[in-house]
Amino acid sequence: MSRAERSARRILFLFPAWLRATRGEEAVALVLDLLPGHAARLPVRSRLDLARAGLHARRIGTPPLWVWLTVLLASPRGRFGTVPLRWQRWASHLVLQRRHAVVLAIHRSVAAGVLVAALAAALRGVGDLVNVPFALVLIAMNNLVGRTADQWRLAVLSRNGLDGEGRPLPPSGWTVSRGWPRCANAHLSTLGTWWLAATLAAAGVAAVFEVREGPAAASAVTAVASTSGAAFLAAVALGLLRRRLRRLDVDELPQPGEEPRRPRLGQLVVVIGAAGLLVARSATLAPMGSWPSIGGVAIAVAGSLAAVALLARQDRRSGRRVGLWELAPVLGPGRVVRWAEPVGPLPSPPAGRRLPPPPARS
Amino acid sequence: MHDAHVATMREPTYLILVALGAGERHGYGITQDVLDLSDGRVKLGAGTLYGALDRLVDEGLVAATRSETVEGRLRRYYALTEHGGSTVRLETQQRLAVARAAATHLGLAGGLA
Questions:
Q1: Domain boundaries, chain A
Q2: Residue of chain A minimizing CA distance to B52
Q3: Which residues, 6 or more positions from A196, have their beta carbon under 8 angstroms from its beta carbon?
Q4: Mean pLDDT for each 10-residue chunk of chain A (362 residues)?
Q5: pTM of this prediction exceeds 0.90
Q6: Record: contact A50-B74, CB cut-off 8 A
Q7: B68 φ/ψ angles, rounded to the nearest 5 degrees
């Protein structure tokens, strides 16, 4: 790499990351093409031009708050995620970058942290703000374990009419919808049911221990350790459950409007289990020993273990790992559609419609 | 829509569109064409060119058509869209009309050819 190229690449950092990713290489190539003769150094004029353009792009290339929020809140079942054309490349760069899972976890944690801080300050006073970093870690970990980032990426891309590489899809000939595509997560690994069962049981035991022993703990260190353990396990369990919930590894997708033929019995159990987990996680942060926290933990343990048993049975019957939505259609995608497929070559005209050969002249 | 573009179109932007009017060009080709069209007056730098191209792509006037790598350097080709073609033709007609009126007003011999 020449000295001029190094200089150009350094100045490129003035551009927003998404613009650098899409235009950076060709801008550097043009800068080098425009070098007078065999100049080793980048002329001052070129440096200033590049720097000015970079600062200008950074000034106008930062999306407004509502665009950031709608992309952040995009999910397969939600209504957010569509951004104006101008911000589509920013959005696609955000979700297509290599560490998009970390980016999502950080962004959501920051948003949730602000909410937690506001709630803590409003309900108990500023003294409890020490819980905020703890809550941030839990939320981030839950997002990472739950693998929501893949669904988030697909939701943002499909909502904006972009393909898996962020390129605009043709307006026709493709099937694009806000529904969940089959291929979206069929490749995702899903832990076996008994991993889920073990984590849920551990979370339940830790929560029970927390409710019973937490207030009477011998030292502050023990109390913090028990709270952390219970919350940690509950967050992991919830993440695993969310991962199962989104699994769509099915052989045949139901047609739009047609619901999968699965037992409705699981619906109530799954909902109770998921709600119980949420309560259990909240219970570890609520005043200890109160009836709501004890009830929450009890519901969590009973409902979650019942859900796990149901999942295991269904796995055995189907010979594969089913998604939770197959047991509870109400939790599934609003509309199941085919994933986008590229337009194939145009069919050749039928032989019968070809023009006859011209008559031979005599 | 067209009027809005025409009213705010600056000279470098106009020259880029005119350069692309002759067919698809890559970045270096555009800068050379703009240099020729402006009689050496407008020298586009990489930052200015890609800032303008980026905006034109967003507005749907220009689209990237293909890319290739030559001697290890990425070259992406751009072309006018249908909307871009009609916009640059309208802009040219308006500029021509203003130039004709100005020539007549200033009493330049013969006006514009």
A1: 3-60, 64-178, 183-337
A2: A53
A3: A237, A240, A241, A244, A308, A311
A4: 84 84 84 79 86 86 80 71 80 80 74 66 55 61 60 77 68 35 39 62 62 54 60 64 56 45 50 57 53 61 68 70 59 41 40 46 48
A5: no
A6: no
A7: -150, 160
Residues of B in contact with A26 (CB under 8 A): 26-27, 50, 67, 74-76
As assigned by CATH, the class of the B2-104 domain is: mainly alpha
Q: Go through chain A and tell me how many residues it has.
A: 362
Going from N- to C-terminal start, the domains of chain B cover: 2-104
- Which A residues, 189 through 228, put their C-beta within 8 Å of a C-beta on chain B? none
Per-residue pLDDT of chain B (113 residues; tens, 9 = 90+): 444 444 568 888 999 999 998 888 888 899 999 999 888 888 888 888 888 888 888 788 888 888 888 777 888 889 888 888 888 898 888 888 888 888 888 877 665 55
In angstroms, the separation between the Cα of residue B51 and the nearest Cα of chain A is 6
Q: Report the complex ipTM.
A: 0.80
CA–CA separation, A287 vs B68, rounded Å? Answer: 64
Burial B18-27 (b: 16+ CB within 10 A, else e): bbbbeebbbb
Distance from CA of B105 to the nearest CA of A (A): 38
For residue range A48-98, what is the model confidence (pLDDT) as tens digits?
888 888 888 888 877 887 888 788 777 666 667 788 877 888 888 888 877
Q: Give the nearest chain B residue to A88 (CA atoms).
A: B58
Q: Which residues of A touch B83 (CB under 8 A)?
A: none
User: Measuring CA to CA, which residue among A183, A327, A313 is closest to residue A269?
Assistant: A327
The two tokens of residue A204 are: 């339940």
Give the C-alpha separation, A313 to A95, whole Å: 36
Cα distance between the two ends of chain A: 71
Cα gap B29→A196, rounded to integer Å: 60
One-letter amino acid of A107? H
Q: How many CB pairs below 8 A link A and B?
A: 63
CA distance A49 to chain B (A): 6
